[in-house]
Design brief:
Helix content is 29%, strand content 24%. The protein is α/β, with parallel strands linked by helices and 263 residues long. The protein has one domain (2-221): HUPs (Rossmann fold, 3-Layer(aba) Sandwich), CATH 3.40.50.620. The relative contact order is 0.17.
Amino acid sequence: MEILVCIKRAPDTSENEIEVNSDGTDIERDDLVYSVNEWDNYAVEEAIQIRDKIGGSVTVVSVGDEEAEDVLRREMAMGADKGILLSDDAFEGSDGKGIASILKAEVEKRNYDLILTGAQADDGAGQVGGILAAMLDWPYASLVNFLEVVDDNKIKVGREIAGGNQEMNEIDLPCVLSIQTGINEPRYVGIRGIRKVASLEIPVLGADDLGIAPGSVGESGAKTKRQDYFVPELGEGAEILEGSTDEIIDKLIELIKSKGGIK
């Protein structure tokens, strides 16, 4: 099975104190520590596990600048077979549809059976996987937390739905799936693995290589634009109800009554 995993270089929230810049147009990025987007790491691990069970190869792809090569190599050290960097000045400022358009152009040049993305990236929109699937006219499932290959034509998918429940479906291949955290435990990447892939070539493809009109992507092609960044004002602290279960229930009822929620 030929699997493509879309990954992104994102600020590492465990290593950074995120602050909005002075004019409110972006976050302060100068001193940020970057790593692979957390959700994407689970997608890569799942792809590797599928390959190890049934054969095939795993390719990781990223849309970004030359620094995105670092996260591609990290995932190759983790076990991905190949990496591809989609990089061009024309891609700068692309919105979700623009990113999906760039990825679509790469997908159509190869023969992939399965495309995995993280459920969402650092902007929280969670849209690229779904848009990519729509552009390709492939089946799609989001928030996937279980995968099992049925045969060459179908894959069994479990996805997280409301109320902590799980929905199970069989989906035709090829398809696009957005992977939820917790589906697996991503393996540790050691120094030896990173050194092993340090000299491997990673193709860099631009707009001309992909047959993309520069004006159709990037900031000029973006239909969605960020207007403002801000830190929400802190509200009053939460009230913690203490006591036995019955006491807490009585206190909660009185509190709701006092707020006009029930009479």
